[in-house]
């Protein structure tokens, strides 16, 4: 999420650097770094050097447990939650300031030269789409914050697990974050809603399409037939040709002799 937010910030605020930084090579390096950094934070408890991984019966969860009275939870809270949140909040603040500045400059330009109907520049349309996508990512971040902040605070404040019920409720809220994003996408973006409808319609109609073909012929519906003459030497076959691009079927009649 931090990488996506920084991507949005560079795209909107430092557009001239975007094409230089986000090449296929650099994107692969960023992905590798994100995975390595995330996994490296779990190496100490995984190797039982600093804490350990195991079942916590009071909260019914597999989590980081203390070993010799020590646990890396507070360090993980800082590196895995506080630091990313600070970077994300600062990035979105800079994005908001940049967008407001661009809007003021555009209003001043329109006031000076006068509005020109039907003369919207493609660059302005692209910038508007970028802002919409950034707003969507901000909504996702806010939901992520609401889902995971209680769990992080409970793990740090109640390290001895004196209130297991609160831990369970916070864990359930964090797990619920996995199903929130699709609803956010559908609720805030028309393109996602159209894609969902298209996907669901394709799934529901695929099985029916494999069995029944709607054929467009001059006489209406056609059928696949195979007929022979009385002598068995001459045959006429109606062949079904399906055009996937046009989503139509046609009938081609062929004849021959045996």
From TrEMBL:
Keywords: Cell membrane, G-protein coupled receptor, Membrane, Receptor, Transducer, Transmembrane, Transmembrane helix. It comes from the Eukaryota. One of its GO terms (cellular component) is plasma membrane. Residues 1-185 form the G-protein coupled receptors family 1 profile domain. The chain crosses the membrane at residues 26-47, 75-97, 136-154, 166-188. InterPro entries: GPCR_Rhodpsn (IPR000276), GPCR_Rhodpsn_7TM (IPR017452). One of its GO terms (molecular function) is G protein-coupled receptor activity. It is a multi-pass membrane protein. It is found in: Cell membrane. PROSITE patterns: G_PROTEIN_RECEP_F1_2. The keyword Transmembrane helix applies. This is Putative gustatory receptor. It comes from Reticulitermes speratus.
């Amino acid at each position: 999420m931090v990488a996506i937010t920084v991507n949005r910030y560079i795209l909107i605020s430092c557009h001239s650097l975007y094409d230089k930084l986000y090449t296929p090579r650099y994107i692969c390096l960023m992905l590798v770094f994100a995975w390595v950094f995330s996994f490296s934070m779990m190496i100490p408890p995984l190797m039982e050097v600093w804490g350990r991984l195991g079942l916590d019966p009071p909260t019914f969860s597999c989590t980081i447990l203390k070993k010799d009275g020590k646990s890396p939870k507070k360090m993980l809270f800082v590196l895995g939650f506080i630091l990313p949140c600070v970077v994300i909040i600062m990035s979105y603040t800079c994005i908001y300031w940049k967008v407001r500045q661009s809007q003021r400059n555009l209003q001043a330009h329109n006031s000076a030269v006068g509005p020109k109907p039907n003369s919207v520049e493609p660059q302005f349309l692209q910038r508007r789409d970028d802002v919409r996508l950034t707003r969507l990512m901000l909504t996702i971040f806010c939901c992520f914050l609401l889902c995971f902040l209680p769990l992080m605070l409970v793990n740090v404040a109640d390290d001895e697990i004196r209130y297991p019920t609160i831990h369970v409720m916070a864990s359930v809220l964090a797990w619920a974050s996995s199903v929130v994003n699709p609803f956010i996408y559908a609720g805030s973006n028309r393109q996602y809603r159209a894609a969902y409808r298209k996907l669901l319609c394709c799934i529901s109609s695929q099985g029916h399409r494999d069995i029944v073909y709607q054929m467009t012929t001059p006489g209406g519906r056609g059928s696949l037939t195979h007929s022979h003459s009385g002598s068995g030497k001459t045959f006429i076959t109606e062949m079904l040709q399906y055009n996937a691009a046009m989503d139509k079927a046609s009938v081609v009649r062929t004849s021959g002799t045996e």
